[in-house]
Amino acid sequence: MPYLGSEDTVRELRRHLSNPNVQSDPLRYRSSILKVIRAMSQGVDVAGLFSEMVKACATVDIVQKKLVYVFLCSYATLNPELSLLVINTLRKDCQDPNPMVRSLALRNMVNLRLPSLAEYVEQPLSAGLRDRAACVRRVAVLGWAKLHNLQPASEIDAAVVNELYGLLRDPDPVVMVNCLRALEEILKEEGGMAINKPITHHLLNRLGQLDVWGQCEVLRVLQRYRPQSESELFDILSLLDASLVSPHPPVMAATLSLFLVLCPDLPAVSFAALERVRGPLLAACGSASRETRFTALCHIQLLLRSLPGLMGAHYKRFFCGYAEPAYIKQRKMQVLVELVNDDNVAMLLDELRGYCTDVNADTAQAAISAIGRIGRSYSDQCLQILTGLLGLQQEHITSAVVQTMRDLVWVCPQCSDTVCSALEGCEETLQDSQGRQALLWLLAVHGERVRSAPYTLEGFIDGVRGEASPGVKMELLTTTMRLFVCRPAETQDMLGRLLHHCIEEETDMCVRDQALLYYRLLRCGMEETRRVLGGRRSEPSLGVLIGRPAEPISQWASSFNTLEPLKQGAGETETTGRASPQHVTFDLDSDLSDTLNSGAEELDYVCLEERIRCPAVPHCSPQSLQAAMQLVNIQTLAFTAAHASPWRVYLYTHAQQAARSALILGQLLYAGEDEDEDEAGLSEGPSPRGREEEVKVTLKQRPRDEKALQGFLSILTAVLHTLPFNTH
Q1: Which residues cross the membrane (predicted)?
Q2: % the chain with pLDDT above 70
Q3: Per-position b or e across 675-707, b if 16+ CB within 10 A of its CB
């Protein structure tokens, strides 16, 4: 937006530029042009000076030419007719004896970006490709790419394309790289430039002459080439060997990516390449650039998926520095969790304990979560640290510890006694809703072991009118109901008060409906209430699934040296069970079998449909369901909206096979009570009461492995039976 007073400014500048006395003095004339550029950069609309600036470009002063060209390129699209006036000057400059003037004229002729001027630009660009000065050839090559981008529908002359291919052997390395970029842009619709054996070996032999970004460009283009024989493959790998340990991280990453593309059927070569880049990656983790450090850490996590012990001896390199930003500290802690073994567990836990009191709350919570993940294998040491952190009585630390203990007890039920004894009195420190929900869940599942559980619940119930979180209220209802089943005398009065408030006074419909559900359940009798609420508290067999098996390199090779590892890591910084599922709009009329059968031409898949009788699933909160799935490495894709009928959950996971990883897609479908009763009335089978508690599970796996699919179904069934009974 132009500044106020811009008209006076433009009038004054025009007066200076048109003054013959100023034009006769080169320094004063250049100073006036500089004032125009300064006004333009400050937001003043100086488009009215276009004619005066066109006249000013007819000079031998290179500095003045550059200033004028900056102006012309900025306002050419607003004055396409007046821009024709500058073409003759630019074409004349393209024949100037000074190569700097020629290259400057070529660059700005293309940067005018006016399709009507394309016919005037082609001849100077063609002459520029054969110019004796390398700087002019560099500009001319990229000029053809810009011209094609300006008119994508028009075809570039085949003679120009052939000339660009010929310039791949130009003695100037920058011209060669610019030719690669130009050909990739011009031939984009044809899949890019053609890569054959002579071109490949020529580019590899000249790799050492290029700068960092030139090497990366060559290595990226060479990923499309496939060697014709094994001997040629190893010749190429030998030429790339020096780049694999390059001190420049971009070159090292691009080279390793090319290695992985060329050797999909040679796992030994790929693993050897991963071993070789260990040193450069560790050096990148110590770079002065924060961005380089973060990117290196993300790619190290990718490598650890196939080589878990790759960085085991260098775990101290991932200890956090005091001045490092929080996102780097959190990523380092994720790597440290992957490197834990019997030899270093004590030192790693001691280091993570120090991070738990970091001034940044997110970093402290990430450290506590890391300790919890290690606790699935080393529960005693981790529980000792977590219990000690509760004594600090800091709100964010206590909340993170309680949530971590909840996740740990789910997987390792042998920890429940220690956790129950540590919960005494921590409710006074908890203020956030996630921490209070975790505490209430623990009291619901193991309330009979916590002596002060009724008194803790009484404090929550007394303050229920001031509670703002519906999630806490629903968890409180479930906890009070489950505690009433095992300790009725101590909780009967509290339960009555809570149900009365939630039914008569509560404004949130989810809370009110859950209270009505529990009230009607109690009227069915204690035996029925105990049967519904008495689900399994944990599944000890799930603990063996926490450790991630080594994946084949082909699983992630295509995402190496891209932004994908950075995006994947972003979701892992959130601790398991803390994130709320995203309610994604989905077409409820489509069934999973229809979606998956879209690729029916591929026969290497297997489908499976089963019904699981699980009364808690249709009433389970999304938070609990997602937390349960994440504990066994099952990822949720989408949920239907709350209280929708039918209610669906879409999920996926990867099952490890001998040679490759199989993808399993799944759908949980609860059709609703009314639809189930209609279906049961039309067919022989279970009673409507039994049908309404069934969830239809539809699975599809590719490639085919029925044994792994049956194993996944058994694990999924075990997870569903551990879910708490909670209104959605």
Answers
A1: none
A2: 85
A3: ebeeebeeeeeeebeebbbbbbbbbbbbbebee
